[in-house]
Amino acid sequence: xxxxxxxxxNFASYGNKxxxxxxxxxxxxxYHVIGENGSGKSTLSDVIKFGIYGRLGNKRxxxxxxxxxxxxxxxxxxxxxxxxxxxxxxxxxxxxxLSIDGIEYDQAGKKNAEEYIVDQIAELPFYxxxxxxSLSINDFKSFLNMSPHDKRMIIDKIFSLEIINSVKWLVKSxxxxxxxxxxxxxxxxxxxxxxxKNSETELIALKEKLKSDAKAQKETINKQIVDYNExxxxxxxxxxxxxxxxxxxxxxxxxxxxxxxxxxxxxxNIVEKKTLYEAQKCPMCESDLTTExxxxxxxxxxxxxxxxxxxxxxxTKTIKTIKETQVKIRNAKISYATKQAEFNTIISNxxxxxxxxxxxxxxxxxxxxxxxxxxxxxxxxxKYIRQQDQGDAKxxxxxxxxxxxxxxxxxxxxxxxxxxxxxxxxxxxxxxLRMDYKVIFDKNFDANILHLGHEVAxxxxxxxxxxxxxxxxxxxxxxxxxxxxxxxxxxxxxxIFASIDGDGIxxxxxxxxxxxxxxxINIFVVNHAPLPTxxxxxxxxxSKPNNFSSIExxxxx
Length: 557
Fold this sequence. Notes:
Helices cover 60% and strands 15% of the residues. It has helices at 43-53, 109-122, 126-133, 148-158, 162-279, 292-360, 365-405, 410-432, 463-484, 502-519; strands at residues 2-9, 19-22, 30-35, 72-80, 83-91, 95-100, 103-104, 134-136, 437-441, 447-451, 454-456, 490-494, 522-526, 538-543, 550-555. The two termini are 26 Å apart.
């Protein structure tokens, strides 16, 4: 980005009067900003920071507006990637307006506009601008004492190593995601294992219960079988008695039937004789049958008839009784046979139940359901174990990628190639500062300082020496940044000359003057004490009449 102008009002000590600074299009200018303490010199850098980034490193936004007038307004006009950009910001009320080639940017709100400004327009994160482009005695971090992380962040941006960082963070994110998945899989496996364990315990308990229940059932059924077998034995015994009685009855009936037949024959014979005697004449010889002999014979016949009739009646009744008894015996036998068949069926059914109990002790519906749950759990466990193994394999792969793109991999190789250029620039600036020091930053950005061939610890340097070496590192970085970002055209140095001797100040100013001409950078040197006027192009005098700061620009050369 190339800043073309800044306008502002009601910013810190500045009042409602609109202040404006315009920068040359192609030439770098050297500005001396001078004024009393508290007049508002450092505010110029804060205005640009707020205008571009919407924040300051050392102040809260609510502390920015002028305490009398409020309503801070800042407008920054700049050129970025061939487009004209206007950024307008305000506090009380808060607002951000971004225009690109005269068209207002309105992509989904303020947050996206902020991201667009940093990523696409400024192309520099705030920490780089705050630590390199704009430095003040209050928030300047010594490059010698800066943390390795902060150094890396700056070097990464200058030399486009952030793409390696992006890959590394993407890999880290993927490793984190895979590890979270692995943890989730592990928890799933533990849950499934616990479920399987519970199901197996339940199955064992169920089998024991089934076994116990089956034993009780078998005992009951066996008792029933014994009872019915006893009943069958009684029925079989009773059937034997019935069969014996049936045989006995049949024999008796045969005997009585024969006796009845004999008596019936005797009866017929008697009837025939009676008929003969009633006719009183012999049918054959027609002799008289009324003699005393014949009468005696007739009486005997009649007596015999009475006996025969009595026999026939008795035999008939006895036969009838026997036949009725036989019917009852047959019915009883049928009943016994029916009971026998019924009991045999019951015993058979009980035996079948026993067989089923033997087969189904471990195959009930409930145990089958639990067994199915266990089997499904084992399958799901295998699935999650496979996924966990695959995740572990991916994590190992990405860890290898992480090592490649980490600080000790490709990035370290790139830094190893870059460091000689940075150290060479630092060596050149130190020579221009007339310092007999050799400063070499290693691959970890730790400074090795030599003076006349002897190693010097940072703690052994005076404050002025530290500042000169930091200035040399800073100028070296600015020169490298200008190669990477040729459109950068502004550089603030706020009260950095404290503890530096006059000769050192002279050499620093000459170096800065050359940079403005050779690299087309507008450099602002903010200092409360006067500096040699002849090296500057402009003198910006800031005063504070009537409690409000005001800018007066004076062209020197």
